[in-house]
Design brief:
This protein is an all-alpha fold. It has 12 helices and no strands.
């Protein structure tokens, strides 16, 4: 039962990613062909209007989408690789490692794309402006279709309880330790690469330490209800760290590639990695702070107060 559900949950994450990616590509095409306004530094009314992709806030929305959908795609593809390795790796130890790592990543691979690729669809509508809310364009349909994915095959809250309440503690924390060690191995490679990769590695390494410390803090209370009261915050923070890991891996691949073959593709990957580390990963600090405070606000809320 759990084996079948785990594969289904990864499939949900993959489907959410596909819908998010489709909306991103359609909003990108629209932004490139829709003329409106002029650059801030050039308000000559006789000058031709520019495509909206020229406006920084539109580029922000497109870049956010790219960072979400391509980060999610990397995550679900990595989980697909683990699904293969747990069945086909020649060494039994490698099969066991793949199985344990996949167990740890499954609630993240289901929920993070379901949440963030839905957010990408929301931004795709926003890029279209008022047209995005009409049936003249497909992006509103993609959002409605993707809205299902945080709900089925285990809601977001259920995945959060699974991650913090079951996966992070199973086998004495072996799964979490393996995940953090695997991310740390990428951090170590990035340190050796020096340059921008090393700068981003420092941020990711600090986030890995926060996961370890916060998990110990939550379960050190001896009170499961308190530990799990803000499990969704934990899932979202850990999910962001995992996707930052996926982006650091992609950045290292860019550094090792022959970028002359497709310079725009590789430059886009590099810029999306920067965006995720500069705009998205810092959000986890406040989430870990909240978790470390053992906040009881939701736990103390009573039914009759709603």
């Amino acid at each position: 039962m759990f084996h079948l559900m785990n594969e289904a949950r990864i499939g949900v994450g993959a489907g959410a990613t596909a819908l998010g990616y489709t909306g991103y590509l359609k909003s990108l095409a629209y932004a490139r062909q829709r003329p409106q306004g002029r650059p801030v530094a050039d308000k000559d009314p006789t000058a031709p209007q520019v495509p909206i992709v020229a406006h920084p806030d539109v580029r922000r929305m497109l870049l956010a989408q790219k960072s979400y959908v391509e980060g999610a795609l990397a995550l679900v593809l990595y989980c697909g690789r683990l699904l293969d390795e747990e069945k086909t790796a020649p060494d039994p130890a490698d099969r066991a490692r793949a199985h344990l790592l996949l167990d740890m990543l499954t609630p993240i691979a289901k929920s993070w794309p379901s949440q963030r690729c839905l957010a990408a669809n929301d931004l795709a509508i926003q890029v279209h402006g008022g047209y995005g809310y009409t049936r003249d364009y497909d992006v509103e349909q993609h959002w409605r279709d993707n809205r299902l994915n945080p709900i089925h095959e285990g809601t977001h809250g259920i995945q959060a309880l699974d991650l913090l309440g079951r996966k992070a503690t199973m086998d004495g924390g072996a799964g979490l330790s393996l995940l953090l060690a695997t991310i740390s191995a990428t951090v170590g490679r990035a340190w050796k690469a020096d340059g921008e990769a090393a700068e981003l590695a420092a941020q990711l390494g600090a986030a890995v330490d926060r996961i370890a410390g916060t998990t110990r803090r939550l379960w050190g209370t001896g009170d499961p209800a308190l530990a799990l009261a803000n499990a969704s915050v934990y899932l979202e923070a850990v999910g962001h760290v995992v996707v930052a890991w996926m982006w650091l891996e992609q950045l290292l691949a860019v550094d090792a590639a022959h970028v002359d073959a497709d310079p725009a593709f590789y430059a886009g990957k590099r810029q999306a990695a920067r965006y995720f580390f500069h705009h998205e990963l810092p959000r986890t600090a406040a989430q870990f702070d909240l978790l470390d405070r053992l906040d009881r606000t939701t736990l103390q809320m009573r039914d009759e107060w709603f």
